[in-house]
Amino acid sequence: MNQITQTVDRYISIWNEPNPERRRELIAATWTEDGSYRDPLLSGDGHAGFESVVAQVATLFPGHTLKLTTGVDVVGDTLRFGWSAVNDATGEPAVAGVDFATVAQDGRLRSITGFHDLAPVLAEGS
């Protein structure tokens, strides 16, 4: 369980890392090369695809910090955990949801499918 907790902690830290070089290092340590990310709005495959998703979210939600809102549930190679992107100035969540993940034998993430419980209405073209 400790390795799983470390993997999820690194995953969360990727979303909060402003330095692109350090973010790429975290992605390599956390994701398999063929990993996939899917949520209702965005998707990305491989390290570069996931990095693009994170960069898009940072542009949509500047001044927000992603935080875990639940523990990590584990069944075999499948994980579930809740999260929220909180406005740094107000402490209010802008978006929140639950991610379901699979992990490879080496403990890195193989896939994430995210669901939004709270999602903003984005302007046309966002």
Keywords:
126 residues; seven-stranded mixed β-sheet; 7 strands; Nuclear Transport Factor 2, Chain: A; 40% strand; 3 helices; alpha+beta; globular
Model description:
This protein has 126 residues and is of the alpha+beta class. It has one domain: Nuclear Transport Factor 2, Chain: A, CATH 3.10.450. 33% of the residues lie in helices and 40% in strands. The chain is built from 3 helices and 7 strands, in the order ααββαβββββ. Strands 1, 2, 3, 4, 5, 6 and 7 form a 7-stranded mixed beta sheet that branches. A hairpin with a 4-residue loop joins β1 and β2. α2 (20-30) crosses α3. The longest helix has 15 residues, at 2-16. The chain is globular, with a radius of gyration of 14 Å.
Through-space gap between termini: 38 Å
Give me the CATH architecture, please.
Roll
The number of domains is 1
* Beta strands, count: 7
Instruction: State Rg.
Output: 14 Å
Secondary structural class: alpha+beta
Shape descriptor: globular
CATH C-level label: Alpha Beta
Give the SSE order as H and E letters.
HHEEHEEEEE
Strand content: 35-45%
- Output the number of helix runs: 3
- Poorly predicted tracts of residues: none
Q: What is the residue-mean pLDDT, rounded to a whole number? A: 93
Stated plainly, the CATH topology is called: Nuclear Transport Factor 2, Chain: A
